[in-house]
Specification:
Layout: E1 4-8, H1 18-32, H2 36-48, E2 51-56, E3 59-64, E4 90-98, H3 102-113, E5 121-127, E6 140-144, H4 151-159, E7 164-170, E8 174-176, H5 181-188, E9 193-197, E10 200-202, E11 210-212, E12 215-217, E13 219-220, E14 224-228, H6 229-235, H7 248-257, E15 262-265, E16 270-272, H8 276-279, H9 283-301
Parallel strand pairs: 4-5, 4-7, 5-6, 9-15
Antiparallel strand pairs: 1-3, 2-3, 7-14, 8-16, 10-11, 10-13, 12-15
Helix pairs in contact: 1-2, 7-9
C-alpha cells in the first residue's frame, strides 16, 4: 500500500511536503467556491510534484504517486472490482453509462456540482467509447470498458463502484437545473420508498405503460432513478441480458417493488433533452431490441398483478395474449 496522509477541515499534515499541502489547501478552497477550472489546474500541479489528491467527506487525502503510473486500460465489465460490501464513505453516487455524446454527461455533472451544497458526491461514468478517461476531468471515476460491452453490463460495472449512501442512476439526456439531491433525500427518508425519480409510469394490464404525473407508480423511468444503497444491494444488479437500455428500468423497478417497497415520483428541477441513443438508432433495430427486452420483462413478471398500484380486475386480465407495448416511451 502506498503511504498516505490525510487533511480534514483545513488541517496541515507535516508528513506531506509543505508546498504540496499548500497546493492541496488552495485546491480545496477552489472546489468550495465551485471554481473547478482552478481546482483542475492545482490538481495537475500536485501531480507534477509526485502526489495525488483524493477527495473525501470533510477533506482530502494526499497519496504519493507510484514511480510509474498505471496506464488506463479498457476492461471487461466482469473484471471491475465491487466496493458494495465496503462501508459507504460518500453521501451520494451519481452514475452514467456513456455510449456516446459525452457533452450531455458533462452538462449534467456541471448542474449537479452547482448544487452539491455540503454533500460529498461521487461521479462515476461507465464509458464504452474510446474517449481517453483523463478527458473527464477532476473528481470523476471512469470505468473504461471494452468495446461491445452491453448496456446492462456497463451499468453494473458503474454500480459496483458505488461509494454513496444514495445512488442516482442517470441518463445523459437529463440536466439538473437546481437542487436534485434535497428532494431525493427527503423522499428516501421514508423507508417504504424503494426507488424514486421525476418520471414514472403506470400499467393496468402489464402490457401498456403510461406516463404518471405524481404519487406512487409501477416503475420509475431510467432517465433518473434514485435509491438507497441498501436497496441496491437487496435488489441486486441489472440483468446483463439487457444489452439495449429499454425496459431495463421497468424490470428493475419491479424487482424493487418485489421487496415490498414503493416506487414514487418526486418533483425535481430537471430538464429532459433529446434522448440521443433513441433518435440515433435505426427504427428497425430499436423496435426489434425493445420488443426483445419487453418480453424478457414479461417472462419474469407476466402474472405479478400484486406488484401493480392499480391492476385490472381479475376477470379482465390478459393471460397468454401479449401485444406490443407503447413505443412512444423513449
Amino acid at each position: 500500500m502506498l503511504p498516505s496522509w490525510t487533511s480534514s477541515g483545513g488541517t496541515n499534515v507535516p508528513e506531506a511536503p509543505e508546498d504540496v499541502v499548500r497546493l492541496a489547501e488552495e485546491r480545496a478552497a477552489a472546489r468550495a467556491s465551485k471554481d473547478f477550472a482552478a481546482a483542475d489546474t492545482l490538481r495537475d500541479r500536485i501531480a507534477d510534484a509526485g502526489w495525488t489528491v483524493v477527495d473525501e467527506p470533510g477533506g482530502y487525502r494526499l497519496e504519493r504517486q507510484r514511480e510509474e503510473a498505471e496506464p488506463y486500460v479498457r476492461r471487461r465489465a466482469s473484471d471491475v472490482a465491487s466496493v458494495l460490501e465496503d462501508q459507504p464513505d460518500m453521501d451520494v453516487s451519481v452514475q452514467w453509462v456513456c455510449e456516446g455524446w459525452p457533452e450531455d454527461i458533462e452538462r449534467a455533472i456541471a448542474g449537479f456540482r452547482a448544487n452539491e451544497g455540503s454533500r460529498s458526491v461521487q461521479y462515476v461514468i461507465a464509458d464504452v467509447t474510446d474517449r481517453e478517461p483523463s478527458a473527464w476531468g477532476d473528481d470523476v471515476e471512469v470505468v473504461w470498458l471494452e468495446e461491445g460491452t452491453g448496456w446492462g453490463a456497463a451499468r453494473n460495472a458503474g454500480l459496483k463502484r458505488t461509494r454513496g449512501n444514495t445512488v442516482l442512476m442517470m441518463d445523459g439526456s437529463v440536466e439538473p437545473t437546481g437542487d436534485v439531491f434535497g428532494p431525493i433525500d427527503s423522499a428516501l427518508t421514508d423507508t417504504e420508498v424503494g426507488v424514486c425519480g421525476p418520471f414514472g409510469i403506470v400499467t393496468h394490464d402489464l402490457r401498456q405503460f403510461d406516463e404518471a404525473r405524481g404519487g406512487d407508480v409501477d416503475a420509475i423511468e431510467g432517465y433518473l432513478m434514485a435509491l438507497r444503497r441498501e436497496t441496491l444491494i437487496a435488489a441486486g444488479l441489472f440483468d446483463e441480458k439487457f444489452r439495449w437500455y429499454r425496459t431495463a428500468d421497468i424490470e428493475y423497478s419491479f424487482r424493487v417493488r418485489d421487496l415490498h417497497r414503493r416506487a414514487t415520483v418526486v418533483d425535481l428541477p430537471v430538464t429532459k433533452h433529446e434522448h440521443r441513443m433513441w433518435f440515433h438508432t435505426k427504427p428497425d433495430d430499436r423496435a426489434r431490441w425493445s420488443k426483445k427486452n419487453f418480453y424478457r420483462f414479461l417472462d419474469r413478471f407476466r402474472d405479478r398483478w400484486d406488484l401493480l398500484v392499480d391492476p385490472l380486475p381479475e376477470d379482465e386480465r390478459p393471460h397468454h395474449h401479449d401485444h406490443d407495448h407503447d413505443e412512444e416511451r423513449r
